[in-house]
């Protein structure tokens, strides 16, 4: 039954119940009719539709699962992307799975199907509303939440700030935080009783600090120095926001956010002013933290923006001009407005929202990518040693290699691409159908939600061969014949919504890794250690990834 028929049924039932009440004051009959309709709707949603009426009910897939939660428990309790990978192995390249309250999700694996959803017909397959609402609250109402024409204009305006020349000018800004990280790790190891044995570090935490410092510097020209100063205002507010979305809080957070109208309500000034009310209920307390952190981050963004507006001359050729992304956006806006009064101009508010978007989209993702790469190298000493052989001579000549030098390191490229393939920091995303159309020969009704199964595509044996799930950097020296850069690896997805920060993230990862591997050796922290990816939006290590780190004994 379509949503229109359902709401029509509800409307006429309540009118009928109202009439009975009015005409006969027969409260019990009205209640009976209402509860009967409610029971029918629940029965329809949970049983009738998924088992007997859904037009895609014949597609292969796992059993419908729990009558209320469907396959949701398997997804939330499993490792990100792994249940979906098992379904594809068992049922083939088109899979139907039922989530909570009977909501269906489809997986399409073939490149042509994904191309249609992500590239050629992207306007008809936007990010679903629930996803945009949640992203908006936690990662700003910026590029991640706009769609259609608004997205086209915003993206066109922002692309130059992420272009290769802009990134080449920025690479040097990575090195203050990187050097600070190297010095901190070195001095902590040196202060151990047996420095030669190295020290165990929670590597995810350190990667999170260094990437926060880098993104704040390169995206807004703002110095957090979270490696030394955990009490920096922005770092603190942002850390609270992240903690609020982890562990038990994440499930609670999602459960609250999907209630219709909640995200809109939480954006209101009223909700912020009365945030302390939420602390009276244990399960709602994280909302107070969310509102507080968001407010603080927005205040800081407003200050940063005001400074940029004062400081940014229009002349983009000015070599002294600030090179961070936000300064580039402010300068581009001034220049466009001076050239053409009617040009698209991003509002102050939209520019401010990008602070959250860059933090939300660019920080944890890069930190996870780095942490997983260190994990994979700790478990593959041969690849690690080969990488050290490659980076050491370069760093001995110049400890701050530029964009080109980093890009030319062949084995570093293989290691980073392979790590992002097997353990993609964003393992999955979603799209929804805005129209009814055929995809891979299946008639997909409007309103259908799709899993875009990034991790599954990246490790699909049909494309990558029998060892698809293994970390083997040398495969990038001899790629499979069928390899297609926009469909064989979806780590940054493809099409107009593909990650705008892709090249920035890759070059940043390379700069951090080259310096780390030239200075330290990495090993698992204990025998039998296994990777523990979370099932969250960004696939971080649950255990913060302890690794044993030793100083490189002798520079080669
Ligand atoms: C290894 C690091 C990163 C990974 C794996 C990653 C992955 C992704 C993915 C999968 C998407 C698409 C999400 C979707 O459509 O549902 C995306 C979008 C996006 N990413 Fe990244 N990202 C990374 C780093 C960055 C960085 C450093 C920035 C910016 C400073 C950034 C900014 C964005 C933005 C703004 C979007 C939305 C693009 C649009 O819709 O036009 N990302 N990213």
TrEMBL record:
Pathway: Secondary metabolite biosynthesis; terpenoid biosynthesis. It holds the Pfam family p450. GO terms for cellular component: membrane. Heme binds at residue 499. Keywords: Heme, Iron, Membrane, Metal-binding, Monooxygenase, Oxidoreductase, Transmembrane, Transmembrane helix. The chain crosses the membrane at residues 29-52. Its cofactor is heme. It is found in: Membrane. GO terms for molecular function: heme binding; iron ion binding; monooxygenase activity; oxidoreductase activity, acting on paired donors, with incorporation or reduction of molecular oxygen. InterPro entries: Cyt_P450 (IPR001128), Cyt_P450_E_grp-I (IPR002401), Cyt_P450_sf (IPR036396), Cytochrome_P450_monoxygenase (IPR050121). Belongs to the cytochrome P450 family. PANTHER family: CYTOCHROME P450, CYTOCHROME P450 12A4, MITOCHONDRIAL-RELATED. This is Cytochrome p450. It comes from Lyophyllum shimeji.
């Amino acid at each position: 039954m379509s949503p229109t028929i359902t709401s029509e049924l509800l409307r006429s039932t309540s009118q009928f119940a109202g009439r009975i009440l009015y005409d006969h004051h027969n409260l019990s009959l009205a209640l009976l009719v209402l509860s009967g309709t409610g029971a029918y709707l629940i029965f329809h949603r949970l049983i009738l539709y998924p088992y007997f009426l859904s037009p895609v009910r014949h597609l292969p897939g796992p059993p419908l699962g729990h009558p209320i939660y469907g396959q949701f428990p398997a997804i939330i309790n499993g490792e990100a992307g792994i249940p979906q990978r098992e379904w594809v192995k068992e049922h083939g390249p088109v899979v139907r799975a039922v989530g909570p309250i009977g909501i269906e999700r489809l997986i399409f694996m073939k490149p042509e199907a994904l191309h249609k959803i992500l590239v050629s017909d992207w306007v008809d397959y936007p990010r679903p509303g629930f996803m945009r609402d949640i992203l908006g609250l936690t990662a700003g109402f910026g590029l991640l939440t706009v769609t259609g024409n608004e997205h086209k204009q915003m993206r066109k305006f922002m692309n130059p700030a992420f272009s290769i020349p802009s990134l080449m000018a920025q690479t040097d800004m990575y090195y203050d935080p990187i050097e600070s990280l190297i010095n901190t790790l070195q001095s902590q190891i040196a202060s151990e009783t047996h420095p030669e044995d190295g020290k165990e570090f929670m590597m995810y935490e350190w990667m999170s600090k260094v990437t926060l410092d880098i993104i704040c510097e390169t995206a807004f020209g703002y110095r957090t120095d979270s490696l030394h100063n955990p009490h920096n205002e922005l770092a603190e507010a942002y850390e609270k926001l992240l903690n609020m979305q982890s562990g038990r809080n994440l499930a609670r957070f999602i459960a609250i956010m999907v209630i219709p109208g909640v995200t809109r309500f939480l954006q209101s000034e009223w909700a912020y002013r009365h945030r302390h009310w939420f602390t009276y209920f244990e399960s709602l307390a994280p909302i107070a933290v969310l509102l507080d952190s968001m407010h603080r981050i927005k205040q800081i963004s407003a200050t940063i923006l005001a400074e940029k507006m004062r400081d940014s001359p229009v002349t983009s050729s000015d070599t002294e001009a600030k090179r961070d992304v936000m300064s580039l956006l402010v300068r581009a806006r001034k220049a466009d407005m001076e050239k053409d009064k009617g040009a698209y101009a991003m509002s102050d508010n939209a520019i401010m929202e990008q602070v959250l978007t860059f933090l939300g989209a660019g920080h944890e993702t890069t930190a996870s990518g780095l942490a997983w790469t260190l994990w994979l190298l700790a478990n593959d000493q041969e690849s690690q040693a080969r990488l050290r052989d490659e980076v050491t001579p370069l760093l001995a000549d110049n400890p701050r290699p530029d964009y080109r030098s980093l890009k030319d390191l062949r084995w570093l490229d293989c290691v980073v691409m392979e790590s992002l393939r097997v353990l993609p920091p964003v393992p999955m995303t979603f799209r929804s159908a805005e129209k009814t159309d055929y995809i891979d020969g299946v008639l997909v009704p409007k309103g259908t939600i799709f899993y875009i199964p990034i991790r599954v595509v990246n490790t699909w044996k049909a494309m990558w061969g029998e060892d698809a799930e293994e970390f083997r950097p040398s495969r990038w020296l001899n790629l499979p014949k069928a390899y297609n850069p926009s469909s064989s690896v979806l780590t940054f997805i493809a099409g107009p919504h593909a990650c705008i920060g892709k090249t920035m993230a890759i070059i940043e990862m390379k700069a951090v890794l080259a310096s780390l591997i030239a200075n330290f050796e990495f090993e698992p922290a204990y025998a039998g250690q296994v990777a523990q990816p979370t099932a969250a939006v960004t696939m971080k290590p649950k255990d913060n990834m302890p690794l044993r780190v030793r100083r490189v004994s002798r520079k080669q």
